[in-house]
Amino acid sequence: MNVTIIGTGYIGLVQGVVMSDLGFDVVCIDNDATKIETLKQGKSPIYEPGLEETLKKSLKNGKIKFTLDYNSGIKNADVIFLAVGTPPLADGSSNLNYITAASKNLAQFLSKDSLIITKSTVPMGTNKKIKKIILDELKKRNMGNLNVSVISNPEFLREGKAVYDFLNPDRIVVGIDENDNKEKIKKEIYKIYKYFLKKQIPIIFTNLETAELSKYSSNAFLSVKISFINEMAMLSEKIGANIEDVSKIMGFDHRIGNQFLNAGLGFGGSCFPKDTLAILNIGKNNDCEMSIVNSAVKFNDDLKDILIKKIKNKLGNVKGKTISILGLSFKPETDDIRESPAIKIIKKLINLGAKIKVYCPQGMEKTKRELENYSDCIKYCKNEYKCAKNSDCLILTTEWEQFKNMDLEKIKNVMKSNYFFDFRNMFSDNKNIRNYFHYYPIGRN
Ligand code: UGA
Fold first, then answer.
1. For a pocket test of ligand 1, which of 94, 158, 360 has the largest count of ligand atoms closer than 8 A to its C-beta?
2. pLDDT by residue (tens digit) across 15-67?
3. Which pLDDT tens digit goes with each residue over 139-169?
4. CA-CA-CA-CA torsion for 226, 229, 231, 235, nearest 10 degrees?
5. Which protein residue's CA is at the shortest distance from atom 2 of ligand 1?
6. 3-class DSSP state of 330
7. How many angstroms from the chain centroid is the CA of residue 220?
8. Residues 183, 107, 282, 267: what is their CA dihedral angle, to the nearest 10 degrees?
9. Is the pTM of this model over 0.85?
10. Residue whose CB lies within 8 A of the most ligand 1 atoms, among 159, 221, 344, 396, for a mutation test
């Protein structure tokens, strides 16, 4: 089966590479020439565990190709996946320019009945608009008689675990337009996702709007869960409770579940911040007050100020102090720093006059570019020990496994003073930690 994927970001690239490994013949189209060249050489432009190895294997086996050219990418396609970005605009709504352009472009080269599968996270009603764009373009080519179906198949991949998540989904959602031939599309989907049928992964067929909304509600719900536990963590600090025990106790209740109850410095990344803002915007446009999601977003922002206040309370005035930050990516196992809580904390500390030293196993290059304007105030270090050297205070902002193994005594000995704010509770159960540091975890004394 010939599979074409438009967009080689996190979603498109993982989809393409893993499908090629499952035996499909894959062509990936992107309009970024540098990216296409990099991919052709077997290098992944993003850090995602397991991705580059599989990419190299599929290139060697001739199962995956990368091109800038829609014509060669579309003409032999049995199915086309749309996986371009939908970044946020200033008002929180999704920028649909890329998906509109990709739809127009692919329509120039369609020559047979086609199934288009949207992976991008798009507001309700977008898949119907995509179909209209494609049909309008086809009509201009006098090919309006082609039967084109556009279906919604949202992704639920986590960055850093995207390859694993692709192969082990909790569910597959397929939204179909009520005017399309549902049975025919179902058969196609069973062919495309045969691997998952064998694994008895549930496939839920529904209408387009439900599929589109299910993605936003899943991300919004997880964001609410995180803000909820962080709010409880702040209360725990005041009243002497232990948030980690609270999470554990709540998590044993099957109705609540034990995931996404880790208190920390809030959610970041390219998905939760973007999708919560988008759903607020969609709610506004549909006269629905989304007060729960709104509170989760607001608390997520406020949390950074609450934590800065905590630092000031313990450390005193931060002006002129050297503060070391461990972890820049928005979570471990990724080099993605989009909406990273660590970056937000750094900016606030710099504005208060602190000197910053940073180290992250993967996020350094992207941070250098993102914080170019702050380069006078930030020193980029080679490892956690160089980062801690001569500093007044250490803040752990991303829970990279590597940090778990650091030599605490060595860290303490290279520091000027010994304040340690563990905003991911990596060392909260370490019995020796207080022998070395004034230690402040999240949500417990
Ligand atoms: C998220 C969803 O988990 C995926 O299901 C979804 O497909 C993806 O967005 C997307 O829309 O594409 P991702 O952004 O990669 O995936 O990251 P998560 O692992 O969900 O973490 C998001 C943020 O929440 C991180 O900053 C993380 O540190 C934070 N978090 C997570 C917590 O603070 N506490 C937790 O208990 C869990």
1. 158
2. 999 999 999 999 999 999 999 999 999 999 998 999 999 999 999 999 999 99
3. 999 999 999 999 999 999 999 999 999 999 9
4. -160
5. 158
6. coil
7. 13
8. 90
9. yes
10. 159
